[in-house]
Amino acid sequence: MKAKTIFYCTECGGETPKWQGKCSACGAWNTIVERPPERAPARRGGGASSAAVRGVPLNRPKTMAEVDVTQELRFSTGMGELDRVLGGGAVRGSLVLVGGAPGIGKSTLMLQICNSLCRFASVLYVSGEESERQIKLRAERLRVQGEGLYLLSETNLENVLDAVRSLNPDVLIVDSIQTLYHGDVTASPGSVSQVKECTMALMQLAKGESVTIFVIGHVNKEGSIAGPKVLEHMVDCVLYFEGERQMPYRILRAAKNRFGATNEIGVFEMEDGGLAEVPNPSEALLAGRPQDTPGTCVTCVMEGVRPVLAEIQALVVPSAYGNPRRVSNGLEHNRAMLLLAVMEKRGGLLIGGCDAYFNVIGGLWLEEPAADLAAAIALASSFRDKPVPSGLAAVGEVGLTGELRSVNALGQRLSEVARLGFTKCLIPKRVHGKLNVPHGLEVIRAANIREALAVLL
C-alpha cells in the first residue's frame, strides 16, 4: 500500500493533507512543506514487548518512597544572577533553554560561565555557528582560561552524541539548537521536525547520563523561541535574555523553571570584556535620573522576591494631527491606554487631544499593576509641567473609578525605597494588614487619583 504524503508548517508544526500557500493555523505564507508520514514500528508476535525481546530491562513503576532524591544536586554556575534565575544554581541532569534576539549576549553568557564551571567539572562547548578558532578568540577576549573546556564545531547530532559518550562531560553547551540536524530526518536544520527531534535526543541524554545541558535558541520576530511550541514543554527551564542592543543592561528572565520560581530576574551589564553582574539593579537603573524635571516618577516592582526600583517617564504634548499618537515602551500598551482614560475621566486632565508617550528606563518591562500610580503621576506631571517632589516614589494600583488599591509585599517595597535614599512614598489609603514603615520614610496616603494629584501637584 502506498504511503500517504502529508504536509506541515515549518513555523508552527501544523499538519495539513494537501499543500496550500498559507498556513491555516498560524497564518504564515509559503511555510508548507512535504513530509512522508512516519511508519509505525512493527509489533512482535507472542505478546512480548520489544524491550523484552531485545533483552532490555523493563522500567517498572516505583512508589514515591522508593525514589531516591539524594542525587538531586545543585551547583553554582559562577554567576550569582544566573544562579538566582535558575532557583539557586543549575541542577545536575537538567536541560536549560536560553533564548534571545541575535547579538543580545547569549553565547557570551554561556562562554563566561565556563570559566567557573571548568574549575570543578568538564565542559563540552558545541557550536554550529563558529569554528573552534573563533570560539577560542572570543574566549580570550572574555578572559576565559579554558582549562577543562573542550570545543567542538559540529552540526550533526550523531557526531555530537558520540563526542559526549567518548568524553563523558559534566556540562554540555549547544550553540544553537537551530543549527543541529538529525540524520534520520529529511527536513533542513532549524525546521520544526529537526528542532523537535534534536531536543528530544538531548533530553534523553540529560536524563539518562545526568549531564547538565544548556541549549541556546534563537527567537522569531514575535519574541518567542523559534521552532515548535512543544520545545518549551520538553525542557526543564526556559530563560529569555532581554534588552535593547543599544542599551548596556541585559535582563535574564525565567519563563519556565521546574526547579524554582518563574518570576525571578537577573540583571547584567554589557561591557568591553563581556557581561558583568549587576547585584544592585535599583541603583543602576536610577543612575543619571534628572532632578526637578516634569514627567518622571519612581516606582517599586517585585521581580520574584527581589524589589526593584524603576523610573517611569511620560511625555504629553499637543497633537498636530486629528488622531493623537499613543506610544508605550516598557508598559503594556493596553494598560497604558487604560491609565490615559482614567486620568482624563477621573483625574480631570484634558489629554484626549494630546500625544502621549510612556517609557521605562533601563529596558525593564513592567507587568504588575503596582506601577500604575507612578505612571499616572508622571503623566499628570508632564501635562501640568510641574515636577514631582524630589525624593518621592509611588506604589499602587489604579482602578477604573480612579481609586487606589493596595499591592502585595508593600513592606518590602517601602524598605527598598528607603534604602535607596527616598524620603517620601505615595501609597493607597487602605493597605492589607499591618504596615511597618522604615525609619526616615514619610508615607503619604491617598484614596483616589484626585487626592494624589492634589497632594503632589
Question: What's the layout of helices and strands?
Answer:
Elements: E1 6-9, E2 15-16, E3 32-35, H1 50-53, E4 74-75, H2 80-86, E5 90-91, E6 95-100, H3 106-117, E7 123-127, H4 132-141, E8 149-153, H5 157-167, E9 171-175, H6 192-209, E10 212-218, H7 230-234, E11 237-242, E12 249-257, E13 265-271, E14 274-277, H8 281-285, E15 296-303, E16 306-318, E17 326-329, H9 333-345, E18 354-360, H10 372-384, E19 392-394, E20 397-398, E21 404-405, H11 410-419, E22 424-428, E23 442-446, H12 449-456
Parallel strand pairs: 6-10, 6-11, 7-8, 7-9, 9-10, 17-18, 19-22, 22-23
Antiparallel strand pairs: 1-2, 1-3, 4-5, 11-12, 12-13, 13-14, 15-16, 16-18, 20-21
Helix pairs in contact: 9-10
Task: Describe what you observe in this structure.
- This protein is of the alpha/beta class and 457 residues long.
- Helix content is 25%, strand content 26%.
- The chain is built from twelve helices and 23 strands.
- A nine-stranded mixed beta sheet has the order 8-7-9-10-6-11-12-13-14, sandwiched between helices. Strands 15-16-18-17 form a four-stranded mixed beta sheet. Strands 2-1-3 form a three-stranded antiparallel beta sheet, with no helix packed on it.
- Helix 9 packs across helix 10.
- The longest helix has 18 residues.
- It is globular and about 70 Å long.
